[in-house]
Amino acid sequence: RVETTPQHCPVVEETLFAIGALSVTTLDAKDSPIYEPDPNQPPIWPDPILVGLFASDVDEKATLALLLQYTDLLESQCRWEILEDRVWETEWMEHFKPLCFGDNFWVYSKQVTEPLAKKAATTLLLDPGLAFGTGTHPTTALCLEWIVATDCEEKTLLDYGCGTGLLGIAALLRGASCVSFIDIDAQAIMATRQNLQRNNFDADKFEICLPENHIATQVDILVANILMGPLVELSETLAELVKPGGLICLSGILHTQEKQIIESYKILFSELEVQQSGDWLRITGRKP
Fold first, then answer.
1. Closest by alpha carbon to 104, among 117, 85, 113, 88?
2. In what side-by-side order are the strands of the sheet with 99-101?
3. Nearest partner of 219 among 192, 193, 239, judged by Cα
């Protein structure tokens, strides 16, 4: 574990790989949030920590000597830790507590073994893989609470920026007749397919694709939990995908960005309502 500065991060990362690191991860030493980072630039916190993962037989003294030789680091900035070998991809599941939304709708990370709050509870099994969306982030929670409270019975829905597929799958479990899933990330496409199957849906029966491959069809409900920039840029595109009288749910919006979103959508949707959780917003509306 190396304490460094944003300016020195690239050099230290490159050096860690050069001296044998199997992977390098950047962590935030002081929990400083970065909102809407430039997609072309990896975000670096003001007080970063670089973690280099090495094989267990590494020569610690020799490796540290090389790191100090090729960087401006001091030995006091570096610390070794021994990690027990585990299945890191699923390690998070051991600490994920079931989440409840609205009318007894539960999200679990693995097969349910504990009694549910009520016999009629709805449960969704989720493994995010490398995609975004477990229900723990305020934006996902805001959208999920709205879906659970909305009449989805026999409705069509588009999950735009689907991530793990959590929101679209929730709509299916609440009675939606058909759901399409769109994301720009191939990992999200993969995670969505796996989570559909995990919840006993045949993934081959659903449209799960990149935006450019989507067959434009108007839906009763559109949910887009992305970021302000794309939401503003895509406002007319998203509006065209909603049937007259249909609903839209937008999130991934900071409270300081409310005005921009309202300005972009007020001519396209009526009955705009804003709900806030911490620094984040959900904005919903109905297409005239």
1. 117
2. 99-101, 105-108, 122-125
3. 239
